[in-house]
Design goal:
It is a single chain. The chain is of the alpha+beta class. Helix content is 36%, strand content 20%. The protein is built from 22 helices and 24 strands. The longest helix is centred in the C-terminal third of the chain and has 25 residues. It starts with a helix and ends with a helix.
């Protein structure tokens, strides 16, 4: 076979694969494809230096990783502002056009999948990164190479980031779940979870079997000269990427609403899950003039579809014990299909809500589900009752550990820190940033350690040995050493971080600091009067601390003995402009907000997360968003970071 014939066979295979995997319209039999594929593979084995980078053989999964590495996006991947209903979209349009005048808009479906950033350089796919936190994601290049709607090479030599959504078609989703059930595995809850889970497979051969589809919706870093976003996207589609089934230029709210209603009418016809419509300002100069808030671009939004409702029957109410011990009633309903997802459970919030709605076992109820919203019961059809329905009793003992529950009305709680249902959640919370900050101890690792019975509470973390971790999936010598070192590095941590890590109901970072500074290690014997005397500690918070220590005092004392936390007593701040003032921080500053928050608290300020008329100062950095706008509308004093620092004595 000549090199030219080899190249021709590659093009034929690519066309057949695109028709099969992307268009779902096969134009060749499996036998024809396999025969031609092996001819190409045979040539490549004989000529390893001539393997084409876009050969279908380069898409076959088989790379197995120990873990994913982190990678930074060149340009940040932003979230989108959600708007609901005609009134909110009108307000959004008015806000946009108030700043830049009348605009041309570019509208397209919002697919419900996993966001992905593709980096091409020199015409080749060099990196694929999940969205992550928008700045840093996980590199999943080996897995993405198996997606046939992602070109391995493009006819563009410049550096360009192409952003889009990885989705699974509804039909393929059903096939995947049938296969998982047959293999004794838990089915995916919805196509979005299936897409995200498939992207993050450590074994790329698993990803290759999932028939993932990539739809681009934007560009990050690029040097394209187009003046409109629609022109840039047309260029991207011409490079070989999938075009959405519908897209529409719009000028007026009437045109936007008409296209929105059209997409809703196509909701069942389109093979991918849609949860809304994306509206973007088309002119790039106006996008740049509008800029960004802290979370999202001011020039785009997601116009969410209305929720879908179904009538079903409440079969039972089961109890879940959360990380902080809160008992959550869960409705077990007759399974019902809502937007491609089979829903068999719905949240009931709390027992006060059950009593308010007079929900009874056996009732016919309306269940609603919208996008990422957890399914919930919105109405009881009391006129359809037969008389056999049964009231839902309030629980008095924990369904897991059997100890007496604390009933606070809306909240019913298990305060036992050793309760098995609390263990995984409490350890995950203990390890997270802002608490003990144990690097490498994520939720999956915690679940593994608990499942293997290596740990059963947070205290056990400090007794893990290398021998305990040897042989566990994904654990090599270096990773074992790093995890154990990270755990031991928390010894001597500030007491306020340890209190926050305990997961006491109603007690967050600010309250934990106040408790640590007031009581030190004597927090275990704090009294009600002493607790409520602290500024910011109310009756509910005080009772929560007292009940937690009543149940867990011996365990907390063991933690104190093991960790030997650093006790920092409160020192009275000298006179300064921020002493006794309520301050809100917003925007990006020269240091982390946590550092600046600690600085202000040392000066005697109370740092709040929301702006109100009682706020004394809003201190802002770059890309300040709605908090700064609200402060200006309320007449609250605003300071730049530099102005703040000049005021500090």
């Amino acid at each position: 076979m000549t090199y030219e014939a080899y190249q021709q066979k590659i093009q034929t295979l690519k066309q057949w694969a695109h028709a099969y995997y992307v268009e779902d319209n096969p134009v060749a039999t499996d036998e024809e494809y396999d025969t031609l594929y092996h001819k190409v593979l045979e040539y490549e084995r004989s000529h390893p230096d001539e393997v084409a980078p876009d050969s279908p053989t380069q898409r076959v999964g088989g790379v197995v990783r120990e873990e994913f590495t982190k990678a930074r996006h060149i340009k940040r991947m932003w979230s989108m502002e959600d708007v609901f209903g005609p009134e909110e979209i009108r307000e959004w349009l008015e806000r946009v056009e108030k700043h830049v005048g009348a605009c041309d808009y570019y509208c397209e479906p919002k697919f419900d999948g996993a966001s992905l950033n593709l980096l091409y350089e020199g015409g080749r796919l060099v990196r694929a990164i999940t969205r992550g936190d928008g700045v840093t994601g996980e590199e999943v290049t080996d897995n993405v190479r198996t997606i046939h709607s992602v070109p391995l090479t493009i006819a563009y030599e410049g550096l360009i980031e192409i952003r889009g959504e990885v989705v699974i078609r509804k039909d393929d989703f059903e096939i995947i779940n049938r296969e998982r059930l047959k293999a004794g595995e838990i089915p995916f809850a919805n196509p979005r979870n299936a897409a995200a889970g498939s992207l993050r497979q450590l074994d790329s051969s698993v990803t290759a079997k999932r028939r993932l589809v990539f739809y681009p919706w934007g560009v990050g870093e690029n040097t394209l000269a187009h003046t409109r976003l629609s022109e840039k996207m047309a260029f991207v589609y011409d490079l070989g990427f999938l075009r959405p089934p519908y897209e529409q230029p719009c000028r007026t709210i009437e045109e936007i609403e008409a296209f929105y209603r059209f997409l809703i009418s196509k909701r069942d016809d389109i093979s991918m899950m849609m949860d809304g419509m994306v509206i973007k300002v088309d002119e790039i100069a106006k996008e740049e003039a509008l800029g960004y808030t802290v979370k999202f671009p001011k020039w785009m939004c997601a116009y969410k579809f209305p929720a879908v409702e179904k009538v079903t029957v409440l079969r039972d109410v089961t109890l879940q014990v959360g990380r902080t011990g809160v008992i959550t009633p869960v409705a077990e309903i007759e399974p019902v299909n809502i937007e491609g997802a089979v829903v068999s459970r719905a949240t009931l919030h709390n027992f006060d809500e059950i009593e308010r709605m007079d929900i009874r076992i056996g009732d016919r109820v309306i269940v609603i589900r919208s996008g990422d919203v957890i399914p919930k019961i919105t109405k009881v059809l009391t006129d359809r009752r037969s008389g056999d329905e049964k009231p839902v009793p309030r629980p008095t003992v924990c369904p897991t550990c059997g100890l007496e529950l604390l009933d606070e009305g809306a909240l019913i709680k298990c305060q036992n820190l050793d309760c098995p249902d609390r263990v995984v959640g409490s350890i995950i919370h203990f390890a997270r940033k802002g608490c003990m900050n144990i690097d490498g101890l994520g939720s999956k690792i915690v679940e593994l350690l608990v499942r293997e019975e290596i740990i059963r509470n947070v205290l056990d973390l400090y007794h893990i040995t290398p021998a305990d971790l040897e042989g566990l999936e994904g654990f090599k010598t270096r990773r074992i050493t790093k995890l154990i070192d990270a755990i031991h590095a928390t010894r001597g941590a500030p007491l306020h971080r340890l209190i926050n890590a305990l997961g006491i109901e109603h007690i967050g970072e600010v309250a934990s600091r106040a408790l640590a500074e007031t009581f030190g290690l004597g927090i275990v014997d704090a009294t009600y009067d002493a607790l409520v005397a602290i500024d910011g500690i109310g009756e509910e918070m005080a009772n929560s601390v007292l009940e937690f220590m009543r149940v867990n005092r011996p365990f907390v004392l063991k933690l104190f003995e093991e960790i030997q936390p650093t006790v920092q007593k409160r020192t009275e701040a000298g006179e300064n402009p921020f002493k006794g003032k309520t301050v809100v921080l917003t925007g990006t500053m020269s240091e982390s907000r946590g550092t600046i928050k600690a600085l202000l608290e040392d000066l005697g300020a109370k740092v709040s997360g929301s702006v109100s008329k009682k706020t004394d100062f809003v201190i802002y950095g770059e890309d300040a968003g709605s908090k700064l706008t609200r402060a200006e509308s309320l007449g609250v004093a605003t300071l730049t970071e530099d102005e703040m620092r000049k005021m500090i004595p």
